Amino acid sequence: MTNEESGGEFKPKIIAFLCNWCSYGADLAGVSRMAYPPNIRIIRIPCTGRMSPKFILEAFRRGADGVWVSGCHPGDCHYIAGNYHARRIFTLLNNFYNYLGLEPGRLHFSWISSAEGEKFARVATEVIEAVKAVGPSDRFAKDRIEVA
Amino acid sequence: MESRTGKIREIARRLLTEEKVDVVLGYKAGTVPLRNIPFFARTPEEVESLIWDSNGRINLANFLPRREDRIAVAAKGCDVRNIVNHIIENQIKREQVYIIGVPCEGMIDPELVYEREGRLIEEAAEADGKLTVRGNGFETVLDRNELLRQNCRICQHRNPPVYDELVGEPVPEEGDVSPLEDLEELLAKADSERYEYFHDLVKTCIRCYACRDACPLCYCHVCFVDEHMPQWLGKSIDPRDVITYHFLRAFHCAGRCTDCGACESACPLNIKVRQFTRLLEKDIRELYGYEAGLSLDKLPPLTVYLPDDREEFIK
Fold this sequence. Notes:
By secondary structure, chain A is of the alpha/beta class.
């Protein structure tokens, strides 16, 4: 569907959950006039420790082609240990999603501090390229009923 | 098996007479052969209904959360592990529950019996490792060890890890079956094949939530499937909703699942729902060295962390 609408080129929809204290601020990439492709929809979260697997499932179910979760480097959490706990959950979630047949390349995690605008732009590009390579999501996206 | 029934009744009678507990939880024969139901014995007379055989597939730990009274439970290995879970998660106090540990030789899968017989079974009896089933004009003797549930065949913890009293002698732990053979096989496949596999697996799911209700780990006041605003999954049997349900149900059990098989035994459509939880159980064991419910002192793996937990998939 996305392909026809955009005249052949696949423009993925990627939901990025960014930690308020680091990756969200690393979006300074924009202020510093670093360019990254416009396929990312950002949702601000207070900490990666706030991430529930439900958020990621919901994003895929509603038709996101990719999901990217980014937070502070281990040891730098604003709430001391939020990202340590998140790391264990993400490890299990990542394995489990692959086990159930999610294509590798749809789900991404990263640690980006607020000083790493350059890394933010680089990872954003990487994520978009990876999702483009996999193509439009159909395995976990629920079809919408077409209303004429 | 009969001796265990006698011993359990004896202990239950003593506990109730001495008023050590208010109620003893065990199994009693169901209305259909090969299916036992949970039974709460509150008086020494009621104790006579308690039985123990190879049909106790329901996990009795499921009946413990939000109890005020003192309760004794005749619990097999996996039931005890789930009781330990409940104690760790503050669902019941240790001093509130008296654990009558029963070393378990595995429970049978009635579907395997139906498959072999293919006719209506009206009566079933068990003695010395043999299962005798009777129906209209036939009587067959089956070997119970060939009829075990898959999770019982690969079980590594048949003896209760924690108990106040043990019924009989501990049974030898099976170590010869690789519990992960078929799982490794599945993991070696391509992601599209695994997707098809799980898609097929839950194709017949009618979303009755029996697997959730049978699971001792599911005790939330409001389950995510009943939540709306936000509504995490649709109420339809759209395949994506069904897979989302099974995904989240399994994920809630991460680090807590004891592979007791209650979910699978409860499924009216015989869906192998354990296939979902098994990977998580393996990951928890291999990554964080934890097996649920073995000790009262160890903290669950998702409540703790190590600075050097693996993270090679994180950019």
